[in-house]
Design a protein that fits this description.
Blueprint: E1 3-6, H1 13-20, H2 24-30, E2 32-35, H3 38-46, E3 53-57, H4 58-63, H5 65-74, E4 79-83, H6 85-91, E5 100-105, E6 117-121, H7 126-138, E7 143-147, H8 156-162, H9 165-168, E8 170-174, H10 179-183, E9 189-192, E10 198-199, E11 210-214, H11 222-227, E12 230-233, H12 245-256
Parallel strand pairs: 1-4, 3-4, 6-7, 6-11, 7-8, 9-11, 9-12, 10-12
Antiparallel strand pairs: 2-5, 3-5
Helix pairs in contact: 7-8, 7-12
Amino acid sequence: MQNRNIITSSQNSHIKLLRNLSLKKYRQQTNKFAVENLAIIYDALRSGHDFQELFVTRDFIERHQDKFEYLQKTSQTDGYYMIDEALNKSYSQLDTPSGITAIYPVRPASFEEGKSVVYLNGVKDPGNIGTIMRTALAFNVPNIVLDSTCVDIYNFKSINAARDSIFKLNITEDESGTWLKQMKGILPIYAANSNEGVSLSEIKGPEIFCLVLGGESHGISREIMELSDKIIRITISRQIESLNVSCAAAVILYKLSGYN
């Protein structure tokens, strides 16, 4: 990645693309998403996930020379684009632009048979989505399925929370809402609920499972609750009503995955 191209105009097609990628509809149209986090870009490349395009400021190169040299030597991309701070700020979704942006292709939907799944129903907070993804990877749950009511996983807040798990997990979007019904009888379906169900402490995790987690405000839909094989709850202090969904995910996955 030795070729350097300098961009100076905010009307340049690459800069327009970067601005557009802040919107879900353009991410879907182009099948691309942007990452503005050096640690994610660096770790992704180390694990074999290369970017399609890279944009950096001169200040960024001076501050991160060693890691930038690694990106140059390791990436199979032809070159990179040099931009100034004003251009970076014109499209950045960060309060303080990082000086680096990489564009990646959205990976095709995938699913690893014979492995556990986290199914997300109506999770709206991008930080929670990303944290759940990272937690799933930590507990060797390689499959994430999101229904159509969830926030977009390629939202920049989701990506910053998910870190490089965004590249390592098998991700499927259940647009029609039929995926879970098709899994009935194939995987035991556990629905997490803060108010009812069998205590998690009484559950002996099966070898593989499908854990359903619901949105922050309304929880899991009644239809999915009725479809589930078992409803489970985490016993917590009476001083608090419920756990954040990403915290609950960590506790339940720790138990079900046999780490306790």
